[in-house]
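Render this sequence as a predicted structure.
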Amino acid sequence: MGIYDSLQTIDQSSTKAKPEKIKDVKKTERKSVRKTERKTERFLTSPAKRPARRQSFEIYDDQMIKLKQLKREAEDEGKILPVSVVVREALDEYFKKLG
């Protein structure tokens, strides 16, 4: 049978993994009564950080060239300027202008 025969000859005792000792785990105390009321204050405030999501958009070649040029100029001044930051700020300004 080929490969199957050679698998049968493997010593089973040498391939068994030795069990690791389990460390003592502290159990957390849980209350037996579950709260049914919701905290509304967390829903009334906006998050401190705006979540960003990766999207695919088409832009013109000259726009990308200008974005990369801005990034290089910032790097020459020792600053870090990701292109995505420029695009997000430009969109914020555009939406402010629209009202």
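Summary. The radius of gyration is 30 Å. The chain is about 45% helix and 0% strand.
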